[in-house]
């Protein structure tokens, strides 16, 4: 038996952190690994010069943690995915962000490790940065792989009812009452509150993270993010009533994440709402159906305490 604490962002390398967790102990993993795209020129835009469509200041990500050789990136990917598969429950899901720089490698490693890819999702960003060189198409999407750990019996949780009937009104590609498709129209804009205490150069909006969490986990489940950055995945987990574990090697971002989490509130009134502020105070059963809650949850009930779990590893197939 091993004991581990939840609702913490650890200042530790994710591979070392995951090695301390028991087999089959995590319900959901959202991974935003380095894309290995810190190559080439140092592109940036200073909006002191006004041009239509350019928006605010921005710069291309150029970070030492995002610069690998092909061989070292393959081995890095194999190492963290090996641990991620081991700790993920048979009923769990894993979502992995990427672009053409790294998704091919992640796909190959998943196949080598017999991690099943459920879907490849295209995250379409209407507000994508323009292409300044004029020598290629404007990149306006990222790729997300939705995976489970792979087994003869598919046990991963999927809230099909929510995927059809949740409120996704800002997604112009999602028709109300229709099945959710694998192209998601979600702006990359972050709200003022998401950036209030600091930001990470590859920070994802809470809107897309909450969609992943609501599709593939239940309230009270444990979400783990190996590359926590400024803590967005953990904030999304807390605000949707899940426990979380985060790993981040940069103490500056750990501090930002912890500050954000101190101010995050578990808003049970809007758990089914990714895009707007509608209130749907229902509780979903494990089979995806809805039952009336005995009590109406309070929007102010944001207390969230650290939990400790002692688990016996679950043997695959049980």
Describe the structure.
The protein has 318 residues and is an alpha/beta fold. The protein has seven helices and 14 strands. The chain has helices at residues 14-19, 70-87, 103-112, 160-165, 206-216, 232-239, 251-263, and strands spanning 2-5, 8-10, 26-31, 44-45, 58-59, 88-98, 116-124, 141-148, 183-185, 222-225, 243-247, 282-284, 290-292, 308-311. Strands 2-11-10-3-6-8-7-9 form an eight-stranded mixed beta sheet. The longest helix has 18 residues, at 70-87. It is globular. Mean pLDDT is 82; it is low at 39-45, 51-62 and 276-318.
Tell me the span between the first and last alpha carbons: 17 Å
The H/E string reads EEHEEEHEHEEHEHEHEHEEE
Uncertain segments of ≥5 residues (pLDDT<50)?
A: 39-45, 51-62, 276-318
Nearest-integer average pLDDT = 82
By DSSP, the count of extended strands is: 14
Classify the helix fraction into a percent range.
Answer: 10-25%
Proportion in β-strands = 15-25%
Shape: globular
What Rg, in angstroms, do the CA atoms define?
19 Å
Largest sheet properties:
8 strands, mixed
Going by helix content, strand content and strand pairing, the class is alpha/beta
**What topology, given as strand order, has the largest sheet?**
2-11-10-3-6-8-7-9
Number of helices: 7
């Amino acid at each position: 038996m091993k004991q581990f604490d939840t609702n913490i962002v650890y200042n530790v390398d994710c591979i070392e952190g995951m090695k301390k967790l028991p087999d089959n102990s995590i319900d959901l993993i959202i991974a935003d690994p380095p894309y290995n795209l810190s190559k080439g020129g140092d592109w940036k835009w200073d909006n002191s010069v006004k041009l239509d469509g350019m928006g605010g200041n921005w710069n291309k990500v150029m970070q030492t943690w995002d610069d690998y050789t092909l061989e070292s990136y393959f081995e890095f990917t194999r190492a963290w995915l090996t641990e991620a598969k081991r700790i993920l429950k048979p009923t769990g899901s894993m979502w992995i962000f990427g672009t053409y720089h790294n998704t091919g490698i992640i796909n190959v490693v998943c196949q080598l490790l017999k991690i099943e890819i459920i879907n490849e999702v295209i995250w379409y960003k209407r507000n994508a940065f323009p292409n300044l060189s004029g020598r290629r198409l404007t990149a306006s999407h990222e790729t997300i792989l939705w995976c489970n750990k792979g087994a003869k019996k598919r046990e991963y949780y999927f809230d099909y009812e929510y995927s059809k009937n949740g409120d996704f009104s800002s997604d112009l590609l999602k028709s109300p009452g229709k099945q959710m498709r694998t192209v998601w129209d979600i702006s990359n804009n972050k709200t003022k509150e998401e950036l209030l205490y600091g930001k990470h150069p590859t920070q994802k909006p809470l809107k897309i993270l909450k969609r992943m969490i609501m599709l593939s986990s239940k309230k009270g489940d444990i979400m783990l993010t190996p590359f926590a950055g400024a803590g967005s995945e953990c904030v999304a987990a807390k605000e949707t009533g899940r426990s979380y574990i985060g790993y981040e090697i940069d103490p500056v971002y750990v501090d930002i994440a912890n500050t954000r989490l101190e101010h995050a509130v578990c808003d049970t009134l809007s758990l089914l709402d990714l895009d707007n502020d509608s209130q749907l105070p229902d509780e979903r059963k494990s089979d995806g159906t809805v039952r009336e809650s005995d009590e109406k949850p309070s929007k102010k009930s944001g207390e969230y305490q650290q939990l400790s779990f002692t688990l016996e590893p679950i043997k695959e197939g049980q």
